[in-house]
Specification:
Blueprint lengths: L2 H17 L6 E3 L14 E4 L3 E5 L2 E6 L7 E9 L3 E8 L9 E6 L5 E6 L4 E6 L2 E7 L7 E11 L2 E10 L10 E5 L6 E8 L6 E10 L2
Antiparallel strand pairs: 1-15, 2-5, 3-4, 4-15, 5-14, 6-11, 6-15, 7-8, 7-14, 8-9, 9-10, 11-12, 12-13
Length: about 210
């Protein structure tokens, strides 16, 4: 890894070292992955995901077509009480915007989604929108997303954050959604919808115990 890429990754992951003392359950920055191949050890639910070169480092890339929603699952299946994060890069075309997200609990679990066309950060359960807060997205830049499920009193809470990659992670959660039942067990995932007709890139997948 080049010094510049190490520094960028360090800035993105530094808050994790502070907040989470436990060893990561899963981590993948694709540096050891083979170029122009599907990533090993992941379950692609849909989409032509390939490892690509991006400057001095490697990323996972989803092409800008077809216009649909695509995703893959990573890591081993986990019960609620974990945190998943990743970095995402996308661009708009005119008034067309991509969407992207990170999830826990398998395909039918909870997903934190950046929805630039709505100027919103959203929580979905499967394909059903459950909660939304206003949030601006910066076109053509890397964005970090983190989702967490944890026990809270007599129920559970799903929490999410979004912030410009390479900057300090906000201390407070950007969006929270309380649920009565324990969130489903399953693998973490990343998702992308290239509705702008341009590629989406993914990097720095991480899964750790909840704070």
């Amino acid at each position: 890894m080049t010094p510049s890429r190490f520094f960028t990754t360090f800035l993105a992951l530094f808050p994790i070292a502070v907040l989470y003392a436990a060893e990561p359950i899963y981590r993948n920055d694709f540096e050891a992955a083979e170029l122009d191949k599907e990533p090993e050890g992941m379950l692609i639910t849909a989409g032509d995901f390939k490892v690509k070169q991006d400057g001095a480092g490697k990323v996972l890339e989803l092409p800008g077509e077809p216009l649909d929603t695509f995703g893959l699952l990573f890591g081993a299946s986990q019960k609620a009480g974990v945190t998943a994060s990743a970095r995402f890069f996308g661009t708009k075309t005119g008034r067309k915007f991509p969407t992207f997200g990170v999830s826990l609990g398998g395909v039918g679990g909870y997903r934190l989604q950046m929805s630039p066309a709505k100027k919103a950060l959203e929580i979905f359960q499967g394909d059903e929108g459950r909660h939304s807060v206003p949030l601006e997205w910066t076109d053509g830049s890397w964005t970090s997303l983190r989702i967490q499920t944890r026990k809270a009193g007599g129920g559970w809470v799903v929490e999410g954050k979004a912030w410009p990659a390479g900057t300090a992670e906000p201390a407070a959660w950007t969006i929270t959604f309380a649920v009565k039942d324990e969130p489903p067990a399953g693998r973490a995932g990343i998702w992308g919808s290239p509705y702008s007709g341009t590629l989406i890139r993914f990097d720095d997948l991480l899964l750790v115990p909840a704070s």
